[in-house]
Amino acid sequence: MASINSSLLRVRSPSSPIKRAIFFFACYLIIFALWSSSSFDDLDSKAKSSSIQKKMGDQETPRIEKPRQVVKKVLARSQPEGVGATVRRSIGRAELRSLDPFLMLDEFTVSAPAGFPDHPHRGFETVTYMLEGAFTHQDFAGHKGTIGAGDLQWMTAGRGIVHSEMPAAEGENKGLQLWINLSSKDKMMEPRYQELQSKDISRVEKDGVDVRIIAGESFGVRSPVYTRTPTMYLDFTLQPGARVDQPIPDSWNAFAYIIEGEGLFGGPEDATAATSHHALVLGPGDGLSVRNPSARPLRFVLLGGQPLGEPVVQHGPFVMNTQAEIRRAFEDYQYHKNGFEKARHWRSHP
Question: pTM for the whole thing?
Answer without folding.
Answer: 0.83
